[in-house]
Write a structure and sequence with these properties.
alpha+beta, 28% helix, Aminopeptidase
Length: 194
């Protein structure tokens, strides 16, 4: 039986190593193709444990973490995420940013992703002044050489949750499994009004 639990601030700290390993494993896959390391991921996750607005939904199979999904007040996000919103004249204090969802392949299609959205949206509603949620997704061409034949875009899943794509994009750089150097990636924002 898979259970999901939600953690905030310092309660995230005991899970950092497990969550970092999950991120390294899942982000290597399509569509992110991220060649990450435990060191960089642990540093990233430690920031969530120090935040006063962060939240992480974790899916457990017994004692093993098999998936996780993060959120954070947009006002605490990095410039590469917030700048497109500033440029568009949007008030950052109204948004909760959904950073990522990672779930091991064998647990997909069981409703865990839906629960991740429910947990994060509930957390967003608890943040003062927040009335909208947003996330961004990497853009890949349909003919990308590493695209699996059975790859299914998540657009319909996101739309069913009430999220719509926007014209806002940001650029993030990371080392990919198919490149010796870091690569710039374009990510499109999706939004939902709570």
């Amino acid at each position: 039986m898979i259970r999901t639990e939600f953690f905030t601030g310092p309660a995230i700290a005991p899970h950092i190593t497990r969550l970092s390993a999950l991120r390294v494993a899942v982000f290597r896959e399509w569509p992110y193709l991220y060649d990450g390391s435990m060191t960089s991921e642990q540093g990233f996750m430690e920031g969530f444990a120090k935040s006063t607005t962060s939240g992480i939904a974790i899916a457990f199979d017994g004692d093993e973490a098999v998936g996780a999904s993060t959120c954070l007040a947009m006002t605490e996000e990095d410039d590469h995420v917030t700048q497109p919103f500033r440029d568009a004249g949007l008030d950052l204090s109204r948004f909760c940013y959904f950073g990522e969802s990672v779930l091991l392949r064998q647990y997909r299609g069981q409703g865990i992703g839906v629960r991740f959205f429910q947990w994060r949206e509930a957390h967003a509603r608890s943040l003062p002044g927040v009335d909208s949620t947003t996330f961004c997704a990497v853009q890949r061409p349909s003919d990308h050489p590493l695209r699996p034949r059975d790859a299914i875009p998540l657009d319909n899943f996101w739309r069913k949750r009430g999220y719509l794509p926007t014209d806002l994009t940001c650029t993030m750089t990371w080392k990919q499994v198919d490149s010796a150097a870091k690569v710039q990636n374009i990510l499109r924002f999706w939004m939902h009004r709570l």
